[in-house]
Every structure is written in structure tokens, then in C-alpha cells.
């Protein structure tokens, strides 16, 4: 591959050297090595024959790869400037109007990957058994506080809880949390024959035609 007729290998090596010079922790050096293919593509697309759209997509992809590999924000923020400096020094014409947009695309990809990883970690913290508390006998309390608003994701989460509770021989569960999460959990538990109740609702007197909940908070009169 080449950019404007210039060989990329020397430029790629020089870009890596410049990035290593600004690396702030050992992980950055690993990131530089592991993203070599994506970095080579970015260099190629800075050439005059490549479209801006392809360049910006490649930069966003590189940003994501850097985040997933654990790159520091400092490395991500400066790597496009290093690439441009290397290409310019090698005599490759770089359209100045693309530089800031390429930098922004890489940072956006990096930030998006970091945010997604953080969200995934939060969601994982609600996996069984972290979201349950054992009660007397064959009952558990389930905290339905899963942060996602995606119905499909909530359904998958609820189904996994139901499967684990069946294996644990749980027969009853009290639910507390958001309405959407409680609804998905209650639906999943109903399918496997686990009775459900809500802690707050269980403290109210049963109305006409209603059956009083089996669950009562032990510290309430």
C-alpha cells in the first residue's frame, strides 16, 4: 500500500516511534504494536486519492481499537498529529482540512468504546447472583435495577436469572426496582413456575378480589 505514491512502511515505523515517545504507561507500547494494521490503513487513506469518508471511518475504527486495547487518552489524543507530521516529513501531501476531522473521528471512536465498555461493566454487575439476596427457605429478593432501557437486553437478563434460580431450586421471589425490569423478571419467572411478589405491595391490605402476597418484610409490623 502507498499514500500518494510514497511507501508506507518507513512512515508507519516513524509514526510508531513518535507515539512511543509520548506513551505514558507500558500498555501504550502494546497498543501501538497491536493496532499496526489499522494504523497502516489510516496512513494510506490520508493520501489524495482516498475519500474523506473512508479516512474518517478508519480513524474512528483505530480509536476504538486503541480504547479496547487499553490506550491512554494522551496517546489517543495525539496520534493523528504524529501521523500527519510523519507523512508531511516524508513529502506526502496531506489535506489540512482533513486533519482536524480525522483527529475528531479517532477521539470519538475512542470515547465511544470507553463508554460502551463502562456501560457493559455496569450491566455485568447486575448479573446473578449479585442482584439477589437469599431469604428464608426457598425464597430470594431480586433487585431489579438493571440500568439498560433496552427491552430485549432486559429480557435476556431476566431469562438468565430465571434459569439460575431454577437450578438453585428457588420457588418464590420478591421484586423491587424499576417497573420495566420488574416486568421482565416477573414474566421470566412465571414461565419457570416461580411465584413473585413486590415488597411494597405486600404491605398493603388485599383489596376486593385480590390475594394477599405471600411475602412480608420481617421488619415491618
Write the layout of secondary structure elements.
Layout: E1 2-3, E2 6-7, H1 9-22, H2 26-34, H3 36-45, H4 52-69, H5 73-89, H6 96-124, E3 132-134, E4 139-144, H7 151-167, E5 172-177, H8 179-191, E6 195-198, H9 199-202
Parallel strand pairs: 4-5, 5-6
Antiparallel strand pairs: 1-2, 3-4
Helix pairs in contact: 1-5, 3-4, 4-6, 5-6, 7-8
Description:
The protein has 221 residues and is an alpha/beta fold. It folds into 2 domains: 120 residues, no CATH class; 71 residues, no CATH class. The chain contains 9 helices and 6 strands. A 4-stranded mixed β-sheet has the order 3-4-5-6. Strands 1-2 form a two-stranded antiparallel sheet. A hairpin with a 2-residue loop joins strand 1 and strand 2. Helix 4 runs parallel beside helix 6, helix 5 packs antiparallel against helix 6 and helix 7 packs across helix 8. The chain is elongated.
Amino acid at each position: 500500500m502507498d499514500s500518494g505514491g510514497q511507501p508506507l512502511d518507513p512512515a508507519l515505523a516513524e509514526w510508531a516511534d513518535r507515539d512511543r515517545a509520548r506513551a505514558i504507561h507500558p500498555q501504550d507500547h502494546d497498543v501501538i504494536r497491536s493496532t499496526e494494521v489499522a494504523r497502516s490503513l489510516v496512513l494510506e487513506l490520508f493520501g489524495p486519492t482516498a475519500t474523506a469518508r473512508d479516512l474518517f471511518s478508519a480513524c474512528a475504527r483505530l480509536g476504538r481499537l486503541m480504547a479496547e486495547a487499553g490506550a491512554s487518552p494522551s496517546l489517543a489524543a495525539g496520534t493523528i498529529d504524529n501521523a500527519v507530521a510523519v507523512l508531511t516529513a516524508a513529502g506526502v501531501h496531506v489535506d489540512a482540512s482533513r486533519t482536524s476531522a480525522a483527529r475528531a473521528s479517532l477521539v470519538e471512536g475512542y470515547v465511544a468504546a470507553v463508554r460502551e465498555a463502562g456501560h457493559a461493566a455496569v450491566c455485568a454487575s447486575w448479573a446473578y447472583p449479585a442482584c439477589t439476596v437469599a431469604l428464608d427457605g426457598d425464597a430470594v429478593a431480586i433487585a431489579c435495577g438493571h440500568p439498560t432501557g433496552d427491552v430485549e437486553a432486559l429480557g435476556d437478563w431476566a431469562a438468565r436469572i430465571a434459569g439460575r434460580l431454577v437450578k438453585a431450586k428457588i420457588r418464590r421471589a420478591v421484586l423491587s426496582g424499576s417497573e420495566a425490569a420488574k416486568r421482565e423478571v416477573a414474566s421470566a419467572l412465571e414461565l419457570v413456575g416461580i411465584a413473585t411478589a413486590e415488597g411494597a405491595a405486600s404491605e398493603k391490605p388485599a383489596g376486593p378480589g385480590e390475594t394477599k402476597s405471600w411475602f412480608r418484610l420481617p421488619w415491618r409490623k
